[in-house]
């Protein structure tokens, strides 16, 4: 390990995700209930970790549309279905697209504060079962009046960001194509194999992300309509996909880690959340990244790779342009434009990808950040517990 284990340091012991499926009634996971998908994920997490389920002190889950099949405190029911003892509680939260990452943050913060030693941060979203926006009142004039800003659709904000940063349709489409190509290459190279729990659906074994499309047809992408602005730049091809999926991360204090003799995979270095302009609502990753780096005295070049949620290509490119981040370090295995964005789960999915990529490459630091509707963002920096500095000759 790169540093000594301290009692109140927070470590990722295990993480796992489902394959991400298309979030429609023909998607590979559509016939599974959200509570069952999360229960499967929690059970697999604990099996892989070797930790007794009875030691878990809370199951915190991100769910962005927490109604109907995804309501009623789904992590409590999922934990019980997964065989956790009745004394293990659960709670769901909605920080919109940052929900899965926020669930990890809340678990980490409880451990760092000394309130808990072992907790799970996770997320689930079955967009084929509970449609995005099911809990919104955006079409209610009484709900949206009285603010000192325009209550806009995220797609409109993404168009505004593209204009502000002078991005072109070609740049957005090429970044999107890159996402598919990198995701496809990572899948074929087996980079995702160990992090994905295969799921049997009927006589089929689902073990890969369903949204990846290669070869990339750029000519087809150019013909797509721009639904948020006439002759605009944002299309279905350069935005994240509607998806189904779940993921879970097991966090543990340094004290409990030593007591149980567990092997840590990554250390939580810092976690932050910020508010940002609610009209340019998707620019939050810029101040969130800056705050996370400042918290621990790192600069952008000291981060070995970044996972930024590809809600829209314009969000990633604006963030990269503003912070002058090396493009090669950004989403090296593709992102949500290719594999999809099951809203409440994506934060935990990206964390799972990030932990595995650090281990695969032997690099030290990774940073995850996510834009959030109406002007917020989350960011986390983690450190590879098995990082070995190169010896100086």
Question: Can you give a write-up of this model?
Answer:
The chain is an alpha+beta fold and 393 residues long. The chain has a domain at 10-132 and 241-381: Peroxisomal Thiolase, Chain A, domain 1, CATH 3.40.47. 33% of the residues lie in helices and 19% in strands. The protein has twelve helices and twelve strands. It has helices at 34-49, 74-81, 99-112, 141-144, 154-164, 169-189, 218-222, 254-260, 285-296, 313-323, 336-339, 346-361, and strands spanning 10-17, 21-22, 59-62, 90-93, 118-126, 199-201, 204-206, 243-253, 266-275, 305-308, 365-372, 376-384. Strands 1, 2, 3, 4, 5, 8, 9, 10, 11 and 12 form a ten-stranded mixed beta sheet that branches. Strand 11 (365-372) and strand 12 (376-384) form a beta hairpin. Helix 1 packs across helix 2 and helix 5 packs parallel to helix 10 (313-323). The mean pLDDT is 96.
CATH homolog superfamily of the domain at 10-132 and 241-381: Thiolase/Chalcone synthase
Tally of helical runs: 12
CATH topology of the domain at 10-132 and 241-381: Peroxisomal Thiolase, Chain A, domain 1
Radius of gyration: 20 Å
CATH architecture of the domain at 10-132 and 241-381: 3-Layer(aba) Sandwich
Q: What fraction of the residues are assigned to beta strands by DSSP?
A: 15-25%
Q: What low-confidence regions span 5 or more consecutive residues with pLDDT below 50?
A: none
Return the structural class: alpha+beta
What is the average per-residue confidence, as pLDDT, rounded to a whole number? Answer: 96
Helix content: 25-40%
GO molecular function, one term: acyltransferase activity, transferring groups other than amino-acyl groups
Domain Thiolase N-terminal: 10-253
Active site: 97 (acyl-thioester intermediate), 341 (proton acceptor), 371 (proton acceptor)
Family: Belongs to the thiolase-like superfamily. Thiolase family.
């Amino acid at each position: 390990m790169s540093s000594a284990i301290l009692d109140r340091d927070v470590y990722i012991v295990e993480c796992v995700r489902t394959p991400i499926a298309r979030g429609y009634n023909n998607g590979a996971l559509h016939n599974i209930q959200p509570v069952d998908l999360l229960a499967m994920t929690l059970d697999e997490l604990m099996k892989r970790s070797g930790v007794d389920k009875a030691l878990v002190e809370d199951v915190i889950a991100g769910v962005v549309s927490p109604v109907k099949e995804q309501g009623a405190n789904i992590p409590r029911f999922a934990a019980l279905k997964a065989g956790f003892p009745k004394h293990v509680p659960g709670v769901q939260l909605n920080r919109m697209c940052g929900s899965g990452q926020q669930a990890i943050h809340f678990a980490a913060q409880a451990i760092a504060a000394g309130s808990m030693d072992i907790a799970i941060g996770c997320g689930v979203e079955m967009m084929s079962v509970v449609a995005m926006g099911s809990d919104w009142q955006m079409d209610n004039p009484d709900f949206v009046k009285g603010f000192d800003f325009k209550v806009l659709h995220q797609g409109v904000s993404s168009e505004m960001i593209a204009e502000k940063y002078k991005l072109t349709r070609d740049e957005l489409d090429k970044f999107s194509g890159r996402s598919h190509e990198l995701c496809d290459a990572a899948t074929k190279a087996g980079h995702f194999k160990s992090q994905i729990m295969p799921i049997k659906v009927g006589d089929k074994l689902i073990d890969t992300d369903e949204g990846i499309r290669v070869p990339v047809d750029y000519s087809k992408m150019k013909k797509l309509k721009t639904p948020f602005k006439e002759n605009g730049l944002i299309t279905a091809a350069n935005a994240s996909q509607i998806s189904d999926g779940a993921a879970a991360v097991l966090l543990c204090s340094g004290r409990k880690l030593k007591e149980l003799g567990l092997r840590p995979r990554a250390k939580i270095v810092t976690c932050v959340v910020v508010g940002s302009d609610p009209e340019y609502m998707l620019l939050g990753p810029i101040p969130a990244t800056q705050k996370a780096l400042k918290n621990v005295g790192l600069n952008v070049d000291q981060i070995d790779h970044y996972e930024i949620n590809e809600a829209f290509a314009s969000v990633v490119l604006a963030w990269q342009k503003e912070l002058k981040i090396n493009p090669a370090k950004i989403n090296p295995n593709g992102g949500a434009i290719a594999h999809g964005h099951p809203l409440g789960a994506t934060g935990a999915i990206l964390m799972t990808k990030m932990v595995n990529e650090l281990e695969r490459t032997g690099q030290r630091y990774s940073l995850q950040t996510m834009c959030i509707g109406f002007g917020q963002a989350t960011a986390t920096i983690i450190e590879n517990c098995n990082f070995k500095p190169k010896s100086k000759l």
